[in-house]
Amino acid sequence: MIYANALKDFSQIFKQPHYLPATITAQSQPYLDVYRNNVLANRSANLANTYPTIVQLVGDEFFAALAAKYIAETSAHSGNLHDDGVGFPAFLSTFPHVADLPYLSDVARLDWAIHQAHYSIDLAPIDISQLQSYTAEQFGQLKLILHPACAVIQSILWPIYQILMMHHGESPANLQSGGEQVWVWRDHWQIISSSEALFLERLLAGDYIETAMLASNDDTSPLLAQLFSCGLVCQIQK
Known about the structure:
Elements: H1 3-10, H2 29-50, H3 52-58, H4 60-73, H5 88-94, H6 104-119, H7 136-140, E1 143-146, E2 151-154, H8 160-166, E3 181-185, E4 188-192, H9 194-204, H10 209-216, H11 221-229, E5 233-237
Helix pairs in contact: 2-4, 3-4, 3-6, 5-6, 6-8, 9-10
Pfam families: DUF2063
Domain Putative DNA-binding: 18-92
Protein name: Putative DNA-binding domain-containing protein
């Protein structure tokens, strides 16, 4: 049997509890239950660690049921557990039993961004002294390569920052207050305006500094300075 086909066949044990892969003997079948249960338990625990705000919103028992349903429908595509759960926000957006909590998917996107930022690779920031060689006009025509931990999460309808901070000891979220934008980087998050979110998104997309600032239609120079002061600019390009 081709190795790839054997692995595909073996993976059926996670969808069909009594399935016996062609490469496994009947004597070994009882041990498949142990393996299956360990894998499912590890994935479930990892999802809870990845989405702590969702766990607090729905409770441990209900989250365990959510995780079991997600795992049953979604194969793991990486050997690294930190990569598992990427499709969980989309799953929540269509899962009928959480329809009365319509903000869950957006909050999950924020949890996922925080998780990814925490486990992102380390990259050294640029030496800002090299910026002294550029005029103001030349500076505007630079592109900034930001740290891979940087992300912008936006919700059109829901106050995702308030919901997140509510579970970090702050006041209850006002669900009627409208959407919010959150800038995430390594173990940090910050609420930002829609114009600041657009500015960061344009930089992340590879726009020139001047182009990104003009698109935002607002003064984003304080945010630009923060990128440098926080060591989040890893490279500059002309």
